[in-house]
Amino acid sequence: MEEVKMDDSRALEVVAREPDPKLSENALRVLQKRYLKKDDTGRVIETPKELFARVAWNLAQAERNYGATEAQVEDTARRFYRMVANLDFLPNSPTLMNAGLELQQLSACFVLPVDDSLVGIFESLKHQALIHQCLAGETLIMTDRGLVSIRDAVDAFLVDTDSGALPLTRHWIHGREPVYVVRTNHGHSIRATAEHRFLAVAEHGGFEWRRLSQLRPGDWLVLSAGRWLGKERALKPFRLAQRKTGSGRFERKPIRLPDTLTEELAELLGLYMGDGTNSRWGIRFIGGKRPSSVSI
């Protein structure tokens, strides 16, 4: 089925004359906690009727693939809404959470093939473990194309892992789940679900994997630093603003801006951000007893 953009106003219009859902107080609390749409601050921005209307209207779009008219699609949406509102039938959690939204992940189960071999069995176990950990879509991962958000990563990328650079063969959209932020006192942060694993320092001094839900303030996390898999990258053109000239003004030297990010340029920028300052003659680094200037 082709992608359908959800129109909340259209969905509500179709079921406007339908009764509100018959829900207990406990059911309302569960909906507010897990299923109703929320804004970026976590505030609920959807009512139960809007939720059921969204789901019913979105699923009814499948009828178009079988030649249904607009009126028939509307009738299907209303009939489905009545079943859900009367609690005669309820779809699975991913459908309630995601139908009609950007994610559109309606499946609750993932079926993995298991080859009849020791290697095949453990390969499936590996994929099972990966499914049960989840990062936010905007999380940046190190690939051979540089830093890329997970949602933009595609198969055949080389991804930096604790076992080295490995090809990305599969990735899954895991649905909507509560996301937590882990911050370190060095300023690093990552958003992930409670099941995502982090490499932590154990009490005996070695390393062990812990789920986010098992982390406590004061735990030490192992971070990978200084690894860059990306190749040379083209930089976006940058045009300097015109500067007025005249008596009493210094003439600015011509500036040659690089058009490609190389390892050398990245190292120079890192040094500049960490220990560099500006001067009339270029940029200056403090790295010893005497400052040294570098003209660029």
What would your notes on this structure say?
The protein is α+β, with helices and mostly antiparallel strands and 296 residues long. The chain has 3 domains: 8-98, no CATH class; 118-214, Endonuclease - Pi-scei, Chain A, domain 1; 233-294, no CATH class. 27% of the residues lie in helices and 17% in strands. It is built from 7 helices and 13 strands. It has helices spanning 8-14, 25-35, 48-60, 70-85, 93-98, 118-131, 263-275, and strands at 140-143, 146-149, 158-161, 164-167, 180-183, 189-192, 197-201, 207-211, 233-234, 260-261, 276-279, 282-285, 292-294. The strands form 6 sheets. It has a 3-stranded antiparallel β-sheet with strand order 11-12-13. Strands 1-2 form a two-stranded antiparallel sheet. The chain has a two-stranded antiparallel ribbon with strand order 3-4. A hairpin with a 2-residue loop joins β1 and β2. α1 (8-14) crosses α3 (48-60) and α3 packs across α4 (70-85).
What key attributes describe this structure?
two-stranded antiparallel sheet, alpha+beta, 296 residues, disordered N terminus, single chain, three-stranded antiparallel beta sheet, Endonuclease - Pi-scei, Chain A, domain 1, 3 domains
